[in-house]
Amino acid sequence: MRKLYRNNQEGKLFGVCAGLADHFELDPVIFRIGFVGAFLFIGIGFLPYLLLALIIPKDPRFL
User: Fold this and answer.
1) DSSP three-state, residue 6
2) Domain range summary for the chain, segments of one domain joined by +
3) pLDDT by residue (tens digit) across 12-63?
């Protein structure tokens, strides 16, 4: 089973979107658009992003 890690090498802010993209084998732009869209249209998006940044551990390969 693959683990979910933040990818600080390819990430822009905390590496959450890049880590999610690595885990689900998708483009990180999809997750970035999702978080920004949730922030702009619903008013949330930054809070879940920050929570994920605190919960998801850093990738041990890039420490």
Assistant:
1) strand
2) 16-62
3) 899 999 999 999 999 999 999 999 999 999 988 889 999 999 999 998 887 7
Q: Is 58 helix (H, G, I), strand (E, B) or coil?
A: strand
* pTM attached to this predicted model: 0.88
Q: How far apart are the first and last CA of the chain?
A: 21
Q: Is 6:60 a contact under the CB 8 Å cutoff? A: no
Name residue, tokens 């802010």: 13
DSSP bridge partners of 58: 6
Q: How many CA atoms lie within 13 A of 21 on its CB side?
A: 20
